[in-house]
Specification:
The structure is a homotetramer of 275-residue chains. By secondary structure, chain A is of the alpha/beta class. In chain A, 40% of the residues lie in helices and 15% in strands. The first copy, chain A, is built from twelve helices and seven strands. Chain A has a seven-stranded mixed β-sheet, sandwiched between helices. In chain A, α7 links the parallel β4 and β5. The radius of gyration of chain A is 18 Å and the shape is globular. The N terminus of chain A is likely disordered. At the A-B interface, α1, α3 and α10 of A face α1, α3 and α10 of B.
Chain lengths: 275, 275, 275, 275
């Protein structure tokens, strides 16, 4: 079972947007550039990501590479939230504070319901109290929950915290999203498996961040429930996030998750952040 | 004055989305990766683009780098078209046919008015006849015109064709957009200056394409009229198109427009396309 | 079977927006005002409309009263067209020309594909040729077809014309919408039953117009397929089209369809229009 | 100067959506129906409203009649809030809780920033603390403030409270909106003039409610600053809120504000509510 720790320290991440890419990722870009590649994600590197991520997550997942974390979050949320829906999130969450209303843009006007939480993390109890109005036509409709891992204060949600939140969400038929901009840092910090930190704890869709941990511009939207994919391919294209030379994004992700590069980078970053 | 040519041949571009980046661009990415860079376009490479593009266009321009041509088009059009606006374009245009409704998404529902044109190019006459309903509350409002250079059939608009179309547009107080996904190819084909093919012929905003001509993922929205920029920075961020490590997009553009790399690439591509 | 006529004359309708309501409708408003009524359509008059319209259409239908024809059309289309969808319609259609982009607003940016048609009516053949791109992520997706009955030139679609169009639509898995702003005039002109002119000919959702034919401000969205209702109640509320005193709209509709008031009004109008 | 009162009691309004219209309003509808009227608000009754409301408000105002309070609020807010804007409002406010996200829909995804307030009313102090992030591209932009008069708990904002809130808003270049669903009740309760309760206290745009106080379905969006009208006529049409027979809405408003009908109704309602 998952190993729960107490007294985990917060990690500071001042520099993760200013540093460049790690050597393995750069090399992969150069290599991907060698020879013609089918455009729009139909290349072999992109296609192989499905299997590689499925292996990492110990489950068949559906993966959409993208070059922006804000886009990954907003696109993911738009598959699980109608225009008249509520997204429950921490008041300090990146989607609420730092994306200039991207979730609202992509969903067509959903409402981000702000939770106060504790230490930057929402709690199952507060979430449960906040969900109301289901089925009443005057109210925006409870639709999804989004948590950030690591959260905005640098703390990680423990596995049982995620499970409790997911349980409340699913009891109310809401979908669970994880903004994993610093997914690897959290994983290393919790010392658990990717599966344990996501679908085994009730996460339905993950924004898998890589840019802040060694890539130039590479993120992935990962679906643990294929039925939630919905119209995502059209929404992505329509938003200008289906790059023609998608293989160079996929190549970054491929190098990132190969030979534990991502975990090594995260361990290093966490160690630096604690000093 | 501009040199007008007759009987220009169409250029075929089957492969420009499948080929990789040219060596200068790759080298620039590697170099940009060397050392920390301010995020979100506040780095020196990005800032210097303003001057470099201004020099190329013989006019002070405002430049927004982006990694997607569809996004460049849709963002540009959203600054010059309200949600109830008409965008006049060729029925075969990329914005109408191949972007899954991106202009509609970014404008909040504008209408793309399809013109039949001749040989893939719209004509000033047909445009003039199509503009109607201005000020009448029941009708969507004429707002902007978009032409593709090279157009979708591979032909280039001659300078006097652009001028006539722009004149009609401006007479009706519409803004002129050029989708320059193959801007360099057109420039080489017309053998004129960037200024002549754009603002000197009445273009207000340009989607400057580079991905199809030697970059990995780099385009630029170029404003010849600063007053049209409007809220673009917020709209870009909100759409997930303000990349944190924007410097690596800017570095591609920088290498692309330095030492005539772009023109050399285009000359080569045009020569290949004619065979 | 349906009676098909030839050489039907066009009807002119210059005055149907300027005339007032008929006596029966006014009387119903006064009567509805007598005593308290449950708000937001939970009153008895509104509830009874379900049965009354079901009787008229010889099928159990789901009815949403509204006070605007533009809203009825746009709301109906938004239940059958995603933001990246195509709505096939005549180039002269009211939804395309006279509603200031309401369908685009309500769908979140769908594309109205203009058909040239013959005499103001689209044809099954042209529709069939126009539908393409299904499943291809670069293209907006064929989603729905809208015809206006009477159409904008004053002509009525014959029953077999509607059937052929619906057959093409359904073969391609598109939904059929009828803008029945002048539904009663068409019905009287064709001398057929409401059922024959709608669901028996393949119509899935109807904008049932009453304002132009004797009401003050009363229309109804009528679903012949309950599975298409989707999230309409929330979309209506969200658009400000769920009036608190909805009973006074319902009262108009109730009086309008009682004792053949609507058919009598339409017969009179058609007779006047032919002179 | 304004008369400030203390210890005003809350008013309960259980029944104002279920009661019918008052006799004067009904009579006006009947009278408006007598004879042809220009459609879409070009009739004499609608046009005269501009003068009548200007007289009432002691200032030249611009008036848009509408049949829905939710639409009046959302349309008003959409003229003063961009898609990436913040609307500051009480957490219990009707626009936040009871309109199923109408402001988000009409603005294209603005964010309603919830204030805790005191006794159902926001305070200038809390507003001032909440406004931040102006000009920073990552954050949604402070754009407008909306207060409800009477507020959702039944209390009225005192004139000096409105003035202090408006001062903060205007200092930050935000626009002030008043949701006056129960405007008349508040006016009677404060015993001040319409001008004092609105533009003289800093209100820029008012949703003037009439449905809850004697009309069937009649509200008005009233602009005290003509420059804020912007594109409202197009947005209204596009939303299906420009009724063809607008004269019957205007007739209700006309009767409502003539001979102090509205004030008499409100006095009666307030007296009943206090028992």
């Amino acid at each position: 079972m998952e190993k729960i720790k107490t007294k985990r320290e917060r990690v500071k991440f001042a520099s993760d947007n200013v540093a460049g890419a790690c050597p393995e990722v750069l090399e992969a870009i150069l290599k991907a550039n060698d020879g013609d590649r089918a455009p729009y994600g139909d290349d072999e590197i992109s296609k192989n990501l499905q299997d590689k991520f499925s292996e990492i997550f110990e489950k068949e997942v559906i993966v959409f590479p993208t070059s922006s974390g804000t886009a990954a979050n907003a696109l993911a949320l738009s598959t699980m939230t109608p225009s008249f829906g509520n997204i429950y999130c921490h008041k300090l969450s990146h989607i609420n504070v730092d994306e200039c209303g991207a979730p609202e843009f992509y969903t067509g006007g959903a409402k981000l319901v702000n939770l106060n939480g504790v230490n930057g993390k929402i709690t199952a109890e507060e979430l449960n109290k906040s969900i109301s109005g289901k089925g009443v036509v005057h109210h925006t409709q409870p639709s999804s929950v989004s948590i950030t891992q690591l959260c905005e204060t640098g703390e990680a949600y423990e596995l049982d915290e995620i499970k409790k939140i997911s349980e409340i969400a699913h009891n109310h038929k809401l979908n669970m999203h994880m903004d994993g901009a610093r997914f690897a840092n959290a994983l290393v910090s919790l010392d658990c498996s990717p599966a344990e930190m996501t679908w085994k704890s009730g996460i339905d869709v993950l924004s898998f961040g890589a840019t802040k941990n060694g890539c130039l511009a590479a993120e992935a939207i990962i679906f643990f429930k294929p039925e939630l994919v919905g119209n995502l391919p059209f929404l992505m294209k329509r938003a200008g996030h289906l790059l023609s030379k998608m293989s160079f994004v996929s190549a970054q992700l491929d190098a990132y998750i190969t030979n534990e590069v991502w975990l090594r980078n995260a361990k290093h970053a966490n160690a630096m952040g604690k000093n």
